[in-house]
Write a structure and sequence with these properties.
Helix content is about 90%, strand content about 0%. The longest helix has about 110 residues. The protein is rod-shaped, with a radius of gyration of 45 Å. Keywords: Coiled coil, Membrane, Transmembrane, Transmembrane helix.
């Protein structure tokens, strides 16, 4: 009898130990499972965080690229506009001297040489009116060029600013020389001796070469600044 009771107690002890160990192991498994779930949750959070950050970086990069493209396009257009106006200014100057002045001067001489004071006075008035119109057109082209030059200064470097200063000064001097030539060509002294225009012509040619040189330097600097965008 005692043997049976002892055996039962022994079996109960084993069972109790087994269940205790099972419960303990189950608790460990539950804790491990919870740890794994926590790690998985943290992993998901990290993935979500970095996915958002990567998407934000991509978005910012796209915006930066688009902004740089827009900035490049705007700057390039303004630079191109300046050179267009330079070409127009040069073309207008040539038109005034090579095409427009000749007919005005020829008509004036034709009427002025008539031996009639009234006709001569009308010729002088008409000639002066034509000359003022030429001065006005030359001034307008110069003004457009100056205005565009000032606009570019809003986006230019200090180096380009210095070159634009040179351009503005030289174009201004060239415009003054052109006007001085027109005035001389309208004078009786020129009608008597056309060689008196030679010094002004030499000055105008030198100013033209200087403007071309400055223009080339401006073009080179503009390419540098566009490449830096």
């Amino acid at each position: 009898m005692e043997y049976i009771v002892g055996l039962i107690s022994f079996l109960i002890g084993i069972a109790a130990g087994y269940f205790a160990a099972y419960g303990k192991e189950k608790g460990k498994n539950r804790a491990l499972k919870e740890d794994i779930e926590n790690l998985e949750e943290q992993k998901q959070q990290v993935q979500v965080k970095y996915t958002k950050e990567i998407e934000e970086l991509k978005k910012n990069n796209v915006l930066d690229v688009e902004l740089r493209k827009h900035k490049y396009g705007e700057k390039k257009n303004q630079f191109a506009k300046l050179f267009t106006l330079l070409d127009e200014f040069h073309a207008k100057s040539n038109e005034i001297f090579l095409e427009r002045f000749g007919p005005i001067h020829s008509k004036f001489m034709e009427n002025y040489l008539v031996d009639d004071e009234s006709t001569q006075n009308e010729a002088i008035a008409e000639f002066n009116q034509g000359m003022m119109a030429l001065f006005g057109e030359l001034h307008q082209e110069h003004l457009k060029l100056t205005t565009e030059t000032n606009s570019i200064r809003l986006i230019s470097s200090s180096v380009l600013d210095g070159l634009l200063d040179q351009l503005t000064a030289n174009v201004g001097e060239a415009t003054n020389t052109a006007q001085e030539m027109l005035r001389m060509m309208a004078s009786p002294e020129f009608w008597a001796d056309q060689t008196i225009l030679s010094p002004l012509q030499a000055r105008a040619e030198e100013q033209g070469r200087e403007i071309v040189s400055i223009r080339d330097n401006i073009r080179k600097q503009m390419k540098v600044e566009l490449d830096q965008i």
